[in-house]
Write a structure and sequence with these properties.
heterodimer; A: Beta-Lactamase; 4 domains; B: alpha/beta; Rossmann fold; Arc Repressor Mutant, subunit A; 6-stranded parallel β-sheet; about 55% helix
Chain lengths: ~525, ~220
C-alpha cells in the first residue's frame, strides 16, 4: 500500500507525520492479518472438501512422495492417511503394483502433461477386493512447471458386478432362446426377419441358410384349404393384425407342410412406437397327432364301455331266458303233474301233501317270474321300444308316485337290438336321475320318428339344475349324464339338454336307425 | 264236431303236456306242433288249423309277429296266446295283433280247454289275473281320450316356431318370411297362448318334440 505521508528530505518525520505513519502501518497489518485468516479458513475448507470427496484422490511430488490423500483413498488402500503421506507407493502397495504405478507416473512425466486412465483390481491387506478406475495427471507448481502427479480412483466394483450379471443374463437368455422348442423370431414392421432362433430355423429347414433378412411370407405360406386359420395368417403377413394368435397349416420353402400356431406381440422403442413384432411359432404337428390319438382312444373307450353294456345285457338276457324258459316252464309242468296226481289220488293225507307241494311250486313260479324281470327285462327283446320305455316308467317312476305319460308315433321305427338296448339303458339312467334328483311330479316322454332315425325326449317338471351347454358333460357326471352321452355318441346320435333352476329338465336325444355304423366298434 | 289245433311253443315238454291234455277229448285234436314263430306261420298256411295255441316268447319270430302274419293270411283263425309274462304290455300287444285269448302258462292246464271253447264261439278269453290289467289300460285310455293329437298350429305358425327355436330374433324371422316384425310378434303370442307355454325354453321343447327343428 502506498503511503500518503510525504517523507521529508532529511528523512525525518514530524511527530504528527510519525503518528499518521504508525496508524497506516497498523491498519496495513490488521488488513494483512485478516487476509491471512481468510486464506487459512479457505485452505481448511478446501482440505475438508478434499477429505469429504467420495472419490479417492491423492497427489504426490515428482519424486513419488505422497503429499496428500483423502479419506476415500486411504479407505480403498486400507491404510491410515498418516501412513501414506510422506511415503512412496513402494511403502503402501505390493512391489509389483508399485512398479506398475511408477511406470505410469514416469510415462506421464515423460510426456510432460496430460492424463492416463486405466483399470485395476486392488487387494488391500485390510478391506475387501475392489475394482477401480485410475486416472492420473501431471499438475503444475506455482512456477508453472510440473510439480507432481495427481491421481483419482473411482470404485467400479458394483458397476462391474452389474455388468457381469448382465452378461450372464444375456448368455442365459440367448441359450434359452436357442434351446427352446418354440420358434422365436423378431420382425420389423415390414415383416422382414431380424432375428430367428434355432427352433425356427429347423422348423422352416433353414439351419444352413439363416432366414434373417427374408420376409416371413416367403417362408410360411398358408395352405389354401385351411381357409379360416389361413386367413388369419394371411392377415398377419399383410400386417393386418386381427388377433394375437392364429393356427394355420403352412408349407415351408422346403415343401414340408405342417400345422403351426403363431402368437405375436408388438415390439416398441422407448417412445412406444411400434418397431416390429416378436413372434412365437409352435409346430403343432405332434400335439395335433397326440390330440387325434387321444380322440381315437376316447372313441375306443366309449365303444368299449358301450360294448360292455351290451355284453352285460346279453348275459343278463341269457340268464333271464333260461329262468323263463327252463325253470319257469318246468315249474309250470311240475304244477300240472301235481294236479294230475291230485285228481288220481283219494288219500286225504296225500292230497294235503300234494296241495302243499303245489303251493311251493306256485311260489317258485312267481319268484322265477319276478327274478326274470329283475335280471333282464325280456320285454326289451320281445316287444317294441315304446313298450320297454313304458315298462321302465312303470318300474322306476310309478313306484315313486311320479306320474308319466308317453306319447309316441303310431309306427315307431324299428331299431336294431343293440341300439334298442343302449337307448333303453340311457332312458333308464334318465328315469333314475329324475327319481334321485329332480323332485318331479310329472314326466312326459315323447318318442318320435325323425328323418334321421328316432328321437326320444324326456321332460320333467322338477327343480332343474344350472347347466352350461358349453361345459363338458363330465362336469355333470353326478347326474349320470356322462354315461348317457357316451352311449348316445356311441350310437352316433346327438343329445341336448334344456334346463334351468325351477324350470324342470328336458333331455332330448336322437339316434340314427342304422346302428351298423357305430363309431369305433371293437 | 272236432276242431283242429296247431301248437306253437318252443318248449317241447310243454307241448307234450298240452297234447296229453287233448288225448282224452274228442272235440279237439292237434294237427301240428311248431317250435318257433316262423315254423308256426308256415304250418298254419299248410294245415289251416281252426285254433292256434301261441306262445308269446319264441326264438326267431316271436308269438306276436307270428300271430300278426297268421291272421293276415287267414283272419278266421282263432289264436289263443300263452305266456309266462303277466306284463300288460304283452297282453295288449297280443290282443292288438288279433289274439282272441290270453292265458298265463301257470294256469294253462286249468283254463286252456275252457279258453279254446270260448274263442271257437267267437268270444274272448283272458286269464282272470290279466283281465284286470286290460281293464286298467282301457280306463287310462279313456282318461286321455280327449287329448288332441294333431297340431293346433297353422303351417305359418309352425314355421315361426321353428325359426324361434333355431334362435332367430323376431326381426330376422320377419325378414326371412317377408312380413313385418309386428306380424311375427302376433304369431308368437298366438302360439304361446295356443300351446299354453310361457317361455322360450318350453317353446323350444315343443318344437323339438314335434320335429320342427332338430337337436
Amino acid at each position: 500500500m502506498q503511503s500518503s505521508v510525504e517523507i521529508k528530505r532529511d528523512g525525518r518525520l514530524s511527530y504528527a507525520e510519525q503518528e499518521e505513519r504508525i496508524a497506516q502501518l497498523e491498519e496495513q497489518l490488521r488488513h494483512e492479518k485478516q487476509c491471512r485468516i481468510h486464506a487459512e479458513d479457505k485452505a481448511v475448507v478446501l482440505e475438508n472438501v478434499f477429505q469429504a470427496l467420495p472419490t479417492a484422490i491423492f497427489y504426490k511430488d515428482l519424486q513419488g512422495i505422497y503429499l496428500n490423500c483423502n479419506k476415500a483413498f486411504a479407505e480403498i488402500k486400507g491404510i491410515f492417511q498418516h501412513n501414506i503421506i510422506g511415503k512412496t507407493v513402494f511403502d503402501v502397495a505390493s512391489q509389483e503394483r508399485a512398479e506398475g504405478c511408477s511406470e505410469v507416473d514416469e510415462a506421464l512425466r515423460a510426456r510432460g502433461g496430460g492424463s492416463l486412465t486405466y483399470e485395476l483390481t486392488i487387494n488391500p491387506e485390510h478391506g475387501r477386493q475392489r475394482d477401480v478406475i485410475f486416472s492420473k495427471a501431471i499438475f503444475l507448481g506455482a512456477d508453472g512447471e510440473p510439480a507432481g502427479v495427481v491421481g483419482l480412483m473411482s470404485d467400479i466394483t458394483e458397476v462391474n458386478r452389474r455388468k457381469h450379471q448382465l452378461v450372464k443374463l444375456k448368455t442365459k437368455y440367448q441359450s434359452l432362446l436357442e434351446t427352446i422348442p418354440h420358434g422365436i423370431i423378431e420382425l420389423d414392421t415390414e415383416g422382414i426377419i431380424t432375428y430367428s432362433n434355432n427352433a425356427f430355423k429347423q422348423m422352416v429347414g433353414r439351419e444352413d441358410a439363416p432366414p434373417e433378412g427374408l420376409n416371413l411370407k416367403d417362408l410360411l405360406k398358408p395352405v389354401e384349404d385351411e381357409s379360416c386359420s389361413g386367413e388369419c395368417l394371411t392377415n398377419f403377413l399383410h400386417n393386418k393384425l386381427s388377433t394375437a394368435s392364429c393356427k394355420a397349416k403352412v408349407s415351408s420353402h422346403t415343401g414340408r407342410i405342417f400345422d403351426v400356431q403363431l402368437d405375436w406381440s408388438y415390439k416398441y422403442n422407448e417412445n412406444r412406437d411400434v418397431i416390429g413384432f416378436i413372434l412365437i411359432a409352435t409346430d403343432m404337428t405332434e400335439r395335433n397327432q397326440a390330440e387325434e390319438k387321444l380322440k381315437r382312444y376316447q372313441v375306443q373307450l366309449r365303444s368299449l364301455s358301450s360294448q360292455l353294456s351290451l355284453v352285460e345285457a346279453r348275459g343278463r338276457r341269457k340268464i333271464a331266458t333260461e329262468l323263463h324258459d327252463n325253470l319257469g316252464q318246468n315249474l309250470v309242468l311240475a304244477k300240472f303233474k301235481i294236479k294230475s296226481l291230485k285228481s288220481m289220488n283219494s288219500s286225504p293225507q296225500l292230497t294235503s301233501e300234494l296241495n302243499s307241494v303245489e303251493q311251493s311250486i306256485e311260489a317258485a313260479i312267481s319268484f322265477a317270474r319276478s327274478l326274470t324281470a329283475e335280471v333282464s327285462p325280456l320285454i326289451l327283446y320281445s316287444l317294441d321300444f315304446e313298450s320297454s320305455v313304458e315298462w321302465l316308467a312303470d318300474n322306476i317312476l310309478a313306484p315313486c308316485q311320479i306320474k308319466f305319460r308317453i306319447k309316441t308315433d303310431d309306427a315307431l321305427e324299428e331299431l336294431s337290438e343293440d341300439t334298442q338296448v343302449l337307448l333303453f339303458e340311457a332312458v333308464r339312467e334318465l328315469f333314475v336321475n329324475i327319481v334321485k334328483h329332480a323332485q318331479a311330479k310329472n314326466v312326459h316322454i315323447y318318442l318320435k320318428n325323425i328323418p334321421e332315425g328316432l328321437q326320444v325326449q324326456v321332460e320333467d317338471d322338477g327343480r332343474g339344475f344350472v347347466y352350461d351347454p358349453e361345459s363338458e358333460l363330465e362336469d355333470y357326471s353326478g347326474f349320470g349324464l356322462f354315461s348317457i352321452r357316451e352311449r348316445i355318441k356311441y350310437l352316433q346320435g346327438k343329445i341336448r339338454i334344456l334346463t334351468s333352476l325351477g324350470q324342470g329338465t328336458c333331455v332330448q336325444f336322437q339316434v340314427p336307425k342304422e346302428s351298423s355304423k357305430m363309431e369305433g366298434t371293437v | 264236431m272236432s276242431y283242429s289245433v296247431l301248437l306253437a311253443d318252443d318248449h317241447q315238454m310243454f307241448r307234450e303236456g298240452i297234447c296229453h291234455l287233448f288225448e282224452s277229448r274228442d272235440d279237439l285234436f292237434v294237427v301240428g306242433e311248431a317250435g318257433d314263430g316262423r315254423t308256426a306261420v308256415q304250418m298254419a298256411r299248410k294245415m289251416n288249423p281252426q285254433v292256434v295255441i301261441m306262445d308269446v316268447s319264441m326264438p326267431g319270430l316271436n308269438g306276436i309277429e307270428a300271430t300278426r302274419q297268421i291272421l293276415a293270411d287267414n283272419p278266421e283263425v282263432k289264436v289263443v296266446a300263452l305266456s309266462m309274462h303277466s306284463d300288460r304290455r304283452f297282453v295288449l300287444k297280443m290282443l292288438k295283433v288279433g289274439a282272441s285269448g290270453y292265458l298265463l302258462k301257470d294256469s294253462v292246464f286249468d283254463e286252456l280247454i275252457h279258453a279254446i271253447q270260448a274263442v271257437i264261439h267267437g268270444k274272448t278269453y283272458l286269464s282272470p289275473e290279466i283281465a284286470g290289467l286290460v281293464l286298467d289300460d282301457y280306463r287310462n285310455l279313456s282318461e286321455h281320450a280327449e287329448e288332441k293329437t294333431t297340431s293346433p298350429l297353422s303351417p305359418r305358425e309352425r314355421e315361426v316356431v321353428q325359426l324361434i327355436a333355431e334362435g332367430q330374433t323376431s326381426k330376422q324371422i320377419a325378414e326371412a318370411l317377408n312380413v313385418s316384425t309386428k306380424t311375427i310378434e302376433t304369431h308368437r303370442a298366438q302360439v304361446m297362448r295356443k300351446l299354453n307355454v310361457h317361455n322360450l325354453v318350453e317353446l323350444t321343447k315343443y318344437a323339438i318334440r314335434e320335429g320342427l327343428t332338430s337337436i
